[in-house]
Structures are given as C-alpha cells and as structure tokens.
Write a structure and sequence with these properties.
The complex is a heterodimer of chains A (about 210) and B (about 425). Chain A has about 210 residues and is of the alpha+beta class. In chain A, about 25% of the residues lie in helices and about 20% in strands. Chain A has two domains: about 1-125, Beta Polymerase, domain 2; about 145-205, no CATH class. Chain A has helices spanning about 1-15, 35-45, 105-120, 160-165, 185-190; strands at about 20, 30, 50-60, 70-75, 80-90, 95-100, 120-125, 155, 165-170, 180, 190-195. In chain A, strands 1-2-5-4-3 form a five-stranded mixed beta sheet. Chain A has a two-stranded parallel sheet with strand order 6-7. In chain A, strand 3 (about 50-60) and strand 4 (about 70-75) form a beta hairpin. Chain B is mainly alpha-helical and about 425 residues long. Chain B has one domain: Cytochrome-c3 Hydrogenase, chain B. Chain B is built from 19 helices and eight strands. In chain B, the strands form three sheets. Chain B has a three-stranded antiparallel beta sheet. In chain B, strands 6-7-8 form a three-stranded antiparallel beta sheet. In chain B, strands 4-5 form a two-stranded antiparallel sheet. Chain B starts with a helix and ends with a helix. The chains are: A alpha+beta (about 210), B mainly alpha (about 425). Chains A and B meet through strand 3, helix 3 and strand 10 of A and helix 3, helix 10, strand 6, strand 7 and strand 8 of B.
C-alpha cells in the first residue's frame, strides 16, 4: 500500500514538479498550486485513470494564512485507489479556486455547496448559486468565525418578514453538546456547551 | 372516390398538424413539484418547465432538510456525533453509524476484534435489506403497484423488531461507538435473524412475480430515465444506481473493509442503466445480503465486541465502570473529553444501501474533530437530475425519482 502510493506519487511528480506530498492517515495526498489545478486534474482524468471525482470540500484554518484549503477526493475505477488533492487559496478574504465543472460534472453541486457553506468562489463555474441555504442568506456558516448558535438574519420570505417583523433567530447551544476544554482549573474544565459566543453570561454578538 | 381518400389521408393530416404546431410560438408552463409532495420522498423540490406534457428544464432545489450537521460535528466529541449520523440516511441508520465509526477508527489506526467486525457486518447488511425493501416497496407504489409495498413493509417491520432488540431503538439506532459497538448481541438474537432470513426470501420471490414481468411496471420503467455509463461516472453516482449503468464498483469488493473479503457474494451489474435495471439491482442485492448475513452467522466469532486496548478511545462497559477504579476514570475521561484521536486527515467511504457514504475528517488531536465533511451519496445521485429529467413526460418523474431511491436527510445534511 505504502509502496504503491510512493510509486504513484513519483509518477505524478515526474509530470508535475509543482506537486508536494501531503501528510495523510490513509490515501495518497498531494498539495497542488491553484494555478496548476485544472491542468493537473485533466491529466488525472485522462492519463492517470482517476475518472471519478467523489468529493469536493474546503477547510477553514481560522487564524492561519493561507486560511482556506480546497480539498478534492478522486477515485480511480481501474486501480480502486483514492487520491486527495489539496489546494491553498491565496486570498484569505475573498478566497477563489478554479472550477472543475468542465472536467467532472460532479463538481457542479459540490462546488456550489462549498461556495454556500465556506464562501469559496469557483471561477468558471456555470451557475454558482447557494444550494443548501437560501439565496439571500448573508453568511457562510461553516467558516470558523461563524458561531454555532447562528446569527440573526432576515426571513427568506420578505413579505412575511414585513408583516410580522420576524427574523431567523440564533439558537444558543446551552444544554446542547457538552464538552470539557481539558486544560485550566476545575471550574473551567467542567463539561459545558462548546459554542460560547452567546450564553446567558455573555451578550449576543451584534453582527 | 379518389378525391375522398385524399381528404381522409391520415399521413397528410399529421403533417398538417405538425406544421401548424411548429408555427405556434411555444408556450411553456412552469410547474413546481415539492418540497412537500409524496413523489419526492422527503423534501426535494423540482422547478420544471413544461412544453405540453414534456419537461424542457428541471432545476432541483435542495436545503429544506439542512441542519448543519458538519458545523455541529465540529462542536462535539466523536461519540456525541453518532446519533446525528442516524439522521443522514434515516432508512439505514445502522450502516451510517458503522461508516462514521470506521472513518474515525481509520484515523486512530485502530484494529477491531473479529466479533466486533462481524456484528458490524450484520448491522450493515440488515440495514441494506431494510433500506432496499422499503426502496422497492415505495418504487412499486410510485408506479402504481400497491401490493408490493405491503409485502416488503411487513418484512421491514420484522427487521425493525430485530433492530430494537439489538440496539434498543427501532429507528434511530446510534449503535456504534468509536472502537466498538454499544453492547454485545442479545441471547438468541442470531437465531431470530436466521428465521427472518428464511422468511424474507419467499417474499422476495413474491415481489419478483408481482413486478419483474409485470406488463404495466415494465412499460413504465424500461427505457425510462437512462443514465449512461459515462454520465454515471462523471456525476459521481454510486451504489445500485451506478451499477445499474454497467459500472462494476462495489466498495465491499473493491476496497474491502470489515473483513468483507472473507464472504462470498456477487455484485449485480446492469446493462442499460434505466429505471427497470435499478429495480433489478436492488432486488438482487437483497438476496446477496441475505447470503452474507447467513455466512456471518455460520461462523460467528467469539471474543470481545470492542477494542479492549484502546483505553483512550472506547469507554468500558457499565459493569466494569461500577466495579473498577481505573475503568471509572477511563469512562469519565472519554465521556467528558471524548475519545482521543491523533491529529491527521482521513477520508473513508463505505458502501451503504444508497451508495458510497464518505466522511472526511480533519483532526488536530483530542476528542473533537476540527472539520468533518459528509459526502452523502444521495446528494451526488441527485446532481444528475437536471440532465436526466428533461425530455421525459411529467408522469415519468415519479418513476425516475422512485428508481433513484434517495433520502433527503443525507442529501441536505
């Protein structure tokens, strides 16, 4: 397994010297610069037999820079091996990545989802709309700076909101999942709700 | 006489009608199916443009069941997330529990004892049987064959009684823990599973007689909703829907986990990828699953049902916690801080009834995942809708959706 991955990596690197190996607990994983992504994935599909794009997602590294990393998982139907490709987004504030829609039809919805929840814009995507949240939703909820409780937002139905004055309210997770932080004095390590952006002791965030 | 024949010539009339029709500016009608509509098996919404009875455009709208599972996962320990996996594909919760636990264990590089693997294989295959029984039943019902649903639902009910006996819950089982399962199998349970297996095969034969050569069912499904091999691969379709299109991919065979390579079973593969093929796949998979269940029970291993060496991952059973100091501390640590999983990245896919359910986990160490991404097979299987549906009649929608056998719980997450 490990030998197979090493020889596969050597083959990939022979063709694309910009690739570096990425630490992984399972499959072969590589880092690829965003500028080379489309070219690399074209070769993956046409020359290396990775014919299936099974998953597209992204990770928000919070305070780190680069803050966002796009993650792609490919499956080869002939070799039955997975490949993980990680691409760092250069811009921390308006992250963008090239779209893979022209290569893999599966990328369409996956990229819409990642845009919706993580706020990464895929350049060249034919129809980059939100997919799970409603179209006018102002936030990207999977980002680390978005509180678990949520943020007050206008109702998706403007006419109902105008008549009732109602909005989508955050739901603090008090009494929700209990976790202990693990370090610090006893009084602070007792199990409590993890998200404390809004509790009865702390005021609701304003925006 | 010659003049009258010309007047009534049908071919001419058709050509005239076609000529007139082509001159009329095409007036299309917008129609909305769902989110609350029995055809959509949940809360899928289809915005369609119709020209007469033919669908010109289809835009699926998702998100009505979005609960933010991935965000929630980042805020709780690994074991606390198990109940949330029940609610992904809520027609096969046991299989989801297993897939999730396997992903975390892969990250922790944990070896499971044989008995635990055998219990999990039983869980997965029984979940597959129950999911496919429901899938075939409601599919038949969608096509107008009510009787099939009654037969398959009765069998599924028996299976749910077995699940209740094993896990304590009929529907939301939450049975796995990281490093094992919640409890060992009850006494005599294996015998009752075998009884169920004996009972389900005759029912499958009945379903076979009712549907497989049923003229109405075939008229409605053969050649309808054809997914080509190339499209199926490009759209990342998995499970029976992929195999119906003629692609031989079953992760149990091709990337064996849980010791699936020990069992002898066959993977049905279709030829045309139409709605009828997708029905045939599920019917045959139930038979294969019954065979796997029998093989597991024939050779059921003894030993512990959880990884005993994983002292920082699996909370010991209650009897030990109440009698031994060390186990009590271990239990306290795991319950409060979560199973201690090393830092790293992992992606694991399991062959679930609906397709490949994948978990991508990023850990920075400790008891809580840093990022957890769920790849729901139904999400990918539905992504082909905007290509698949146009060109079909409105009445084909029911059959196509029924044949795709999706669940919105894992689509919207």
């Amino acid at each position: 397994m490990a030998e197979l991955a090493a020889s596969e990596l050597a083959l990939l690197q022979e063709r694309f010297d910009c690739l570096t190996e990425r630490e992984s607990a399972d499959h072969l994983a590589v880092n690829c610069p965003a500028a080379k992504l489309v070219e690399f994935c074209t070769a993956l599909r046409d020359n290396f037999g990775y014919d299936m794009l099974v998953d597209v997602t992204a990770v928000d590294w919070d305070a780190q820079s680069p803050r966002f990393t796009g993650i792609y998982h490919f499956l080869s139907l002939s070799k039955h091996e997975y490949l993980r490709v990680a691409v760092d987004c250069a811009d921390d504030i308006n992250p963008t990545l090239p779209s893979l829609c022209d290569l893999y039809a599966a990328a369409n919805w996956h990229e819409r989802e990642t845009y919706d929840l993580m706020g990464i814009r895929y350049e060249g995507h034919p129809d980059l709309r939100r997919i799970l949240m409603w179209d006018a939703y102002p936030y990207h909820p999977l980002r680390k700076d978005f509180p678990l409780a949520g943020i007050e937002t206008p109702l998706p139905a403007a006419d109902v909101a105008a008549q009732t004055g109602a909005s989508v309210l955050p739901a603090p997770m008090m009494g929700g999942p209990f976790v202990s932080s693990g370090d610090g004095p006893m009084s602070q390590t007792e199990p409590r709700a993890r998200d404390e952006s809004w509790t009865e002791k702390k005021e609701k965030p304003t925006d | 006489m010659a003049t009258t024949t010309k007047e009534f010539s049908i071919a001419d009339a058709n050509a005239r009608a076609a000529e007139i029709e082509s001159d009329v500016p095409g007036e299309t009608m917008a129609i909305n199916v769902g989110p609350s509509h029995p055809t959509t098996h949940g809360v899928l919404r289809l915005m369609m443009e119709l020209d007469g009875d033919v669908i010109k455009k289809c835009d699926p709208v998702l998100g009505y069941l979005h609960r933010g599972d991935e965000k929630i996962a980042e805020n709780m320990t690994y074991n606390q997330f198990v109940p949330y996996t029940d609610r992904l594909d809520y027609l096969a919760p046991l299989a989801n529990n297993v897939a999730y636990a396997m992903a975390v264990e892969k990250l922790a590089n944990l070896e499971l004892p044989e008995r635990c693997e055998a219990i999990r294989v039983l869980c997965c295959e029984l979940a597959r049987i129950s999911s496919h029984l429901l899938g075939i039943g409601v599919y038949g019902m969608d096509a107008g064959a009510w009787t099939v649903f009654m037969y398959t639902f009765t069998e599924r009910e028996k299976l749910y009684t077995l699940f209740e006996e094993l896990t304590g819950a009929r529907f939301t089982t939450s049975f796995t823990r990281i490093g094992g399962v919640a409890r060992d199998i009850p006494d005599g349970w294996l015998g009752r599973v075998l009884e169920f297996c004996d009972g389900v095969l005759p029912v499958l034969d009945k379903v076979d007689k009712l549907l497989t050569r049923n003229r109405i069912f075939m008229d409605r499904t053969v050649g309808v909703g054809v997914i080509s091999k190339e499209d199926a691969i490009a759209y990342g379709i998995t499970g029976p829907n992929l195999r119906a299109a003629g692609v031989d991919l079953d992760l149990r065979k091709d990337k064996p986990y849980l010791g699936y390579d020990k069992y002898d079973f066959e993977v049905p593969v279709g030829t045309t990828g139409d709605c009828y093929d997708r029905y045939l796949m599920r019917a045959e998979e139930v038979r294969q699953s019954v065979s796997i269940v029998r093989q597991v029970i024939d050779n059921f291993p003894e030993g512990p049902y959880y990884a005993e060496e994983a002292k920082q991952i699996f909370a010991p059973p209650k009897a030990k916690v109440l009698t031994s100091m060390e186990e009590l501390i271990q239990n306290f640590m795991i319950v409060t801080e979560g199973p201690q999983i090393p830092a790293g990245e992992v992606y694991f896919e399991a062959e679930n009834p609906k397709g490949a359910l994948g978990f991508y986990i990023v850990s920075k160490g400790g008891g809580v995942p840093y990022r957890l991404k769920i790849r729901g097979p139904s999400f990918c299987n539905l992504s082909i809708l905007d290509k698949l549906i146009p060109g079909h009649y409105l009445t084909d929608i029911t059959v196509i959706l029924g044949s795709l056998d999706f669940v919105m719980g894992e689509c919207d997450r």
